[in-house]
Amino acid sequence: MGSSHPYIGYLHEVHHGQPAMVLDLMEEFRALISDNVVLAVLHKHEIQPDDFNESLGAYRLKDTAKKTFLQAFERKMNDEFKHPVFEYRCTYRRAIELQARLLGRHLQEGIPYKALALR
């Protein structure tokens, strides 16, 4: 099989200009990284209700709160854990790369793919 194409996915429908494979891979990291960061900044009160601007029913983070959130996101991306497949410590940033490579091998060579799941 030829090289994998990021606009062809297995969970998301292919829409013009949408990198479906990237969106698919993102799903396994949503709870591990994104949801975790959101809950952490709220739990630690790093972001408060007055850190949002409201306009026409939409709420957006103020610039200072965006900076706070991005700092929390960077901390999470640099957190280390033991990768369940490779059995060595890596950061979430490195894990995304590893999972992308595993997914590519699955799509190109049929090697079984296992989504990243941590206890």
> What structural class should be given to the helix and strand makeup?
mainly alpha
- Which residues form runs of ≥5 with pLDDT under 50? 1-8
CA distance, first residue to last residue: 34 Å
Instruction: Return the string of H and E elements.
Output: HEEHEEH
How many strands?
4
User: Helix content range of the residues, please?
Assistant: 40-55%
Strand arrangement, largest sheet?
1-2
Give the radius of gyration. 17 Å
Characterize the biggest β-sheet: 2 strands, antiparallel
What can be said about this structure in brief?
This protein is mainly alpha-helical and 119 residues long. The chain contains 3 helices and 4 strands.
Describe the structure.
- The protein has 119 residues and is mainly alpha-helical.
- Helix content is 49%, strand content 12%.
- The chain contains 3 helices and 4 strands, in the order αββαββα.
- The strands form 2 sheets. A two-stranded antiparallel sheet has the order 1-2.
- α1 packs across α2 (63-78).
- The two termini are 34 Å apart.
